[in-house]
Specification:
By secondary structure, the protein is an alpha+beta fold. It contains six helices and twelve strands.
Length: about 250
């Protein structure tokens, strides 16, 4: 505990001690005056900066498509068809220094066997428009979900704003396709073909958004870790939706 310097004792009377007047002592400690050889140094308590809300993240909670039978589901989305897939999309962000950080998507599947599954992180690049060939020109191995090429940095810098916006939207669309859609086989022998089916659907068709702060982006981009404050906000919103189960998986 600090003791009063010479010249400050006049703040206290004979009947007013530190222990009996804690409030006055606190104020004195918070902003006290030191006199040293003609120089005066003032010190004060500075409050830490509060997190700044900078946008919203999109949250989707997915369950197995109820329109598919169990065998098809197992083929399309694998053995965790009884689980819950979570997707969280952070938009592109420009920090206070002017640096632009790419959009980020995170996903995981929580189930009875993997209740504390780790999040997988994907950076959403800037894809070029899809150049889908005509049906009769498609090779047998063609897959338009993964055929998009991305812009180089030089190409991106010269694009008009509309083309950039379209590319960013396409990046999210392609990511969601890859997360919601899988492939399975139909037919037998020479007639067997690979087809795409939607294995996951949004629970109750209710995606929602949660606020994100500059501290969340600090965790995500600089520290490369899951922003736990965002997860807490998601859980709080989930609790307010009566049709969402309390437990995932």
């Amino acid at each position: 505990m600090l003791s009063p310097k010479k010249g400050t004792r006049k703040l206290f009377t004979k009947d007013l001690t530190f222990t009996r007047n804690y409030a006055l002592l606190y104020e004195w400690q918070k902003c006290h005056r030191h006199e040293t050889k003609g120089a005066v140094i003032m010190t004060s308590v500075v409050s830490p900066a509060l997190p700044k809300i900078v946008g919203k993240a999109l949250y989707l909670e997915l369950v197995a498509n109820p329109e598919l039978d169990e065998d098809t589901l197992r083929s399309v989305i694998g053995w965790q068809s009884k689980g819950t897939k979570q997707i969280l999309i952070f938009p592109e962000y420009q920090d206070d220094l002017g640096k632009v950080h790419e959009a980020v998507a995170m996903s995981r599947i929580v189930s009875e066997h993997t209740p504390r599954s780790q999040w997988d992180t994907s950076y959403l690049r800037h894809p070029k428009p899809l150049n889908t060939p005509e049906p009769e020109e498609k090779p047998a191995y063609y897959n338009d979900y993964f055929s998009a090429q991305t812009y180089t940095n030089e190409e991106w810098d010269t694009l008009p704003l509309l083309a950039k916006a379209e590319s960013k939207n396409l990046a999210i669309e392609l990511y969601l396709r890859s997360e919601l859609v899988g492939t399975t086989y139909e037919g037998e022998g020479d007639d067997r073909i690979t087809i795409a089916k939607q294995g996951w659907v949004v629970r109750d068709n209710k995606p929602f958004a949660v606020e994100i702060t500059d501290e969340d982006y600090e965790d995500l981009h600089r520290k490369s870790k899951t922003p736990q404050a965002v997860i807490r906000r998601i859980n709080k919103v989930r609790e307010s939706i009566s049709t969402f189960p309390n437990k995932l998986g």
